[in-house]
Amino acid sequence: MAPVVLAVLDGWGNTPEQKHNAIHAASTPIMDALWHAYPHALIEASGAHVGLPDGQMGNSEVGHLTIGAGRVIRQELVRISQAVQNNQLGENAALQALASDLKASGGRLHLVGLLSDGGVHSHINHLGGLLRWAAAAGIQQVCIHGITDGRDTPTDSSPGYLQTLDEQIQQAGIGQLTTLCGRYWAMDRDNRWERVEKAYRLLTEASPVSSASPLDVVKAAHSDGTSDEFLEPVRFAPELIEPNDALVLFNFRPDRMRQLTAAFVNSTFQGFERQLITPLPVVTFTQYDKTLPVAVAFPPESLDDLLGEVVARAGLRQFRTAETEKYPHVTYFLNGGMEKPFPGEDRHLVPSPKVATYDQSPHMSADELTDGCVAAIKKGIYSLVVINYANPDMVGHTGDMEATVEAIGCVDRCIGRILDATGQMGGTLLITADHGNAEMMQGPDQRPWTAHTTNPVPFVLVEGEKRKLAGLGGDVQLRSDGGLADIAPTVLQLLNIPVPAAMSGQSLVASTAALGGRTLA
Length: 521
Hints:
alpha/beta, Alkaline Phosphatase, subunit A, 2,3-Bisphosphoglycerate-independent phosphoglycerate mutase, substrate-binding domain, seven-stranded mixed β-sheet
């Protein structure tokens, strides 16, 4: 079987700027040759092109969701921001029920989330909205448990967010910053339970109260070389999360809040020893995991006719693979927020290396991941193969230029192996990315840039049996105005599957002479 192989190079953006560009600095003979020999285009992966506000950088969750949906979806950041701006949180059923519980119990409200305007996992404006809602609802005591960012924002930007929070507290007339810790501890997603345990115990167990102000604490950490991401847990007030209190977790991106939430609500939790706090009404801003017994303030909007669903309906088999850090993206997010595989969808998870930060292991698990993907392609049973390489994004997030250059070179070599296997099977290889990152390692202020970017991403179409770097030999042209929403229709066209009306994206193939006349149905 001649498969379509979709390789997502996570965090591989494109910019003409060569300085502080790890992709430009790396040795990438495979990608360079493919870019020059095969049909290619730059496509948009941020802002309105992926359902985010204009100018908002894309991210892996939104990127894979858009790729799998084949349409632009209004993202949670936009949905929640509109509710906050329109003062509609008081109309939210989940929050109304929680306020009623608190009035009956007389307990405290605890707000947990990332203090950031990065817009990837949270937005600090949403916290301000929650404080105003709590005041209007008559809630008497609000404890804020802040998580510092330094990953989707500059590494030492927390003082600005602490100032914003102080202003929000003054305006609402309610709330106190009770604890603070870096996202490294509270937002792990790779079952490094020793990290999450540290954050959980900060929230639930008595510990010394710092005599220094939050601002002094973070500034001292910065002076010692500790960025916001790695800020050690610190307490500023004695209040704990206790029975009869209530908890709102206001991050909207699910993957990095599942573990901490599970520690609070799962009766069979086994990540570490802890006593279940009950009763404790819990509201999460979005659905972190269907199995978590919580109320959800902004439930997912139902999506139909997703890429994987359409492929399955056509009776074709598909294969998804990634290492731990990006596994939810090629499964849960690519499938529109559904955990369960579609019929005929096989999955392969490769564990990410157990290191503190990925600059210590720039290759991550890319070689093992490629081994499994090549084997799957050569089985000849899959019509669609999707693989995600995490390296450009995860190593790029460390801000280490040298390590990121090494990561890029590793991924390039792996793409060469995927290219060979796809060619041997007479298949088509599509290479793209979900957002930018590694192409910008320093910001305009000359500080390390660890966040994503708004740059476009590459899209390369390599078709034909064993053609490799010889060129298509046909008149295939790709549109120059495309976005991530156009990838699914392109894949379906290559598979000769009619594109459903629900997919508003359009194939990136502008002319089809070398595709055997395949056109959109």
